[in-house]
Amino acid sequence: MGELIETAVSPERIFLFGVDSQSSVDYLWTAEDSLKELVQLARTAGLVVAGQALQKRAAPDASTYMGSGKLQQIIEEMELLNARTLIVDDELTPGQQRNIEAKLPEGFKVIDRTALILDIFAQHAHSREGKLQVELAQYQYRLPRLTRLWTHLVRQAGGRAGGVKGGVGLRGPGETQLESDRRLIRKRISSLKSELEDIRIHRRRYRRRRRNSGIPVISLTGYTNAGKSSLLRALSQEDVLVEDQLFATLDPLTRLVLLPGGREVLFTDTVGFIKRLPHELIAAFRATLEEIAESDLILHLVDSAHPKAEAQISAVEKVLYELGVKDNIILKVWNKIDKLDHAGYMDGHSVSISALTGEGISELKKRIESLLQDNMTLVEGLLRYREGSLLDQIHRQGTVELEEHRHDGTYIRAYVPPVLAARLKPFINISVPD
Ligand SMILES: Nc1nc2c(ncn2[C@@H]2O[C@H](COP(=O)(O)OP(=O)(O)OP(=O)(O)O)[C@@H](O)[C@H]2O)c(=O)[nH]1
Ligand SMILES: [Mg+2]
Prior knowledge:
Layout: E1 13-20, H1 31-44, E2 48-56, H2 68-81, E3 85-88, H3 94-103, E4 109-112, H4 113-124, H5 128-142, H6 151-160, H7 177-213, E5 217-222, H8 228-236, E6 253-258, E7 264-269, H9 279-284, H10 286-293, E8 297-303, H11 309-322, E9 330-335, E10 350-352, H12 361-374, E11 377-383, H13 388-397, E12 399-406, E13 409-416, H14 418-424
Parallel strand pairs: 1-2, 1-3, 3-4, 5-7, 5-8, 8-9, 9-10
Antiparallel strand pairs: 6-7, 11-13, 12-13
Helix pairs in contact: 1-4, 4-5, 5-7, 6-7
C-alpha cells in the first residue's frame, strides 16, 4: 500500500505551511502548536523538513487555501530550499487541492495533513485488518480528489481490485479515464468494506465469547506517543513495540495480566489519537475502535510532560465520545512523571505513573482492581464440591473475601463479574445481588 503515496518512497525534502486564523485554533492549541506537530508527523513519515511558514489571515482562501501572492512566495522559497513537496497543515478541499496543483511548477506537489497521516498509517499497518482499514481510508479520501495527475496511481489500484486488470477493458464508449478510475475505486471500496464487515462480525463473536468468560477487558487509550505500548510492556513484562514516533501502534495487541489480588484481566493497546484525526480513519478503524466502547474499563494515558497535555486530553475525549464512549469508567493515567520536577497528579479520578521506571504501576494495578470491583456482584453461599470448576472461575475472575471448606462444600463470599454471578445462581444457595 506504501506505493499509493509517493512520499513513502525516499527521504523527500518538504515545505510545511499553515494558516493562523481565528477559526483554526483555540487557546489551548495554537497554529504554531499544530505546525510543530506537523513537523513531527513529517519526520515520522520519513520526510526531511526543509522549511516552514505560517501565515496570519482571517480565514483560508476558499479557492487556493493561501493567497496567490503567498503561494508564489512559497514556491520561490521551495526552489531555493530544493523542496518539491508542499504540505498544508489542514484538510484541503478537493477544489483547493486542484487549484494549488495548477499553480505549482512541473514536478512539484501539494498534500494535506490528512494525506500525511494516512501515509504514516500505511507505513505502520502490518496486520491484514490494519492494511485493509488503511487502504479503505486512503481510497475514501482520494475518491473526491481524483485528478488526471493521479490516474497512474489509480491504475495500480485497479490492478488490485478483485482481479480487475487495469482500466482498459472496462471503459465504455465515450467514458473518460477519470470516470472509469472512479468506478474502479468505488468497486474496490465496496469490496474492502465487505471484507472488513466480515472481520467485524468475527471480532464481535470473539468479544462475546470473551465476555462470557468473564475476564474484564481494559482498553489503553490516549494521544499518540503518550506511552500506551510502554505501559502494556511494563504490565505484561513482554516485548511490545515502543517507539518515539507518532502512530507506532496500529494493530491492537491484547495481553493477559494478573492483578495482585489474583484476578486476570486483559489489556488492549490500540491506535493512538491525534488532533483532527481524519474522519476517514475513524470510519475505517471502527471495527477495531468499537472495542474501546465495550471494554470494562478505559485507561486514558496522558503524557504529563507534554507542554500541550491539556489540548491532547480534550482531543482524546472528543474521539472517545465519537466512538460512543459514554457510560464507561475512564481512569486518567498521567504518564512520564519521571520527566516532571514534581510528584505528578493524583486524585479520585487519576493516577500518576512512569511506564519507563515502573513508578506508580503497582498503585495503578490496585486502583484498577478496586474500580473493577465496583462493577462486580457480591455472591455468598455454599458451593458443592462437585462444582469445583465454578470455584476455579471465582478465583480467576473474582476477588475472594471468605472461603471455608466444610463437609458438604465450600462456603464462599466473593465479588464476581455479573456474568459469573448469573452462572452461579443455580449452584450457590445464598446470593446477595446488587
Ligand atoms: N521518560 C519517559 N518516556 C516514556 C514513558 N513512557 C513512554 N515513554 C516514551 O515515549 C515514547 C512513546 O512511547 P510508546 O509506548 O510507543 O507510546 P504510544 O502511546 O504507544 O504511542 P503510539 O503507538 O505511537 O500512539 C517512547 O519513546 C517511550 O520510550 C515514561 O513513563 N517516561
Ligand atoms: Mg503504541
